[in-house]
Design goal:
The chain is mostly helical. The chain has one domain. The longest helix is centred in the middle third of the chain and has 30 residues. The protein is elongated, with a radius of gyration of 24 Å. The termini are far apart. About 5% of the residues are buried. About 5% of the residues have low confidence.
């Protein structure tokens, strides 16, 4: 799977260097195609895994989420590379590029937060301790 990402990154590096609208559209189509290919591969992997224990399911979900985050990060870097001017002056960045980077950073933070919340939500509830005295009734005490 890592080889797939490296091949995609190398294939798109030449397209990412161009700044014309046709190159931008080509990059967007390629990224959509890569996202679909990853989604398909992950679906096949999940199907092949079959029924899993809750712990193994969490591990698989975590692996799939990490793959999607790495892909999103790769796409972000490609788009930033494409949006950079050909010869920017040192220390100067366009306001549009800064807004784009901030928006993508917020999206990545939101995705990471959702991933962390999904792990917390998917944990099973804690087990209740068994009643040490089956004949005794436990309840609030009135004072």
């Amino acid at each position: 799977m890592r080889a797939f990402f490296l091949a995609v990154l190398l294939a798109l590096s030449s397209a990412a260097a161009a700044t014309d609208p046709a190159a931008q559209a080509q990059l967007l189509r390629q990224q959509q195609s890569d996202a679909f290919a990853l989604q398909l591969q992950q679906s096949l992997d999940a199907f092949r895994a079959g029924p899993l224990t809750p712990e193994r399911r969490l591990e698989l979900d975590s692996l799939l989420r990490d793959q999607r985050l790495r892909q999103a990060d790769s796409f972000y870097r490609q788009q930033v590379q494409q949006a950079q001017p050909v010869a920017p002056a040192p220390g100067q960045r366009s306001a549009e590029l800064m807004r784009f980077e901030q928006e993508r950073a917020r999206e990545l933070d939101r995705a990471r937060e959702e991933a962390a919340n999904a792990v917390v939500r998917s944990r099973p509830p804690p087990r209740l301790e068994p009643n040490p005295e089956p004949g005794a009734v436990w309840g609030p005490v009135l004072r």
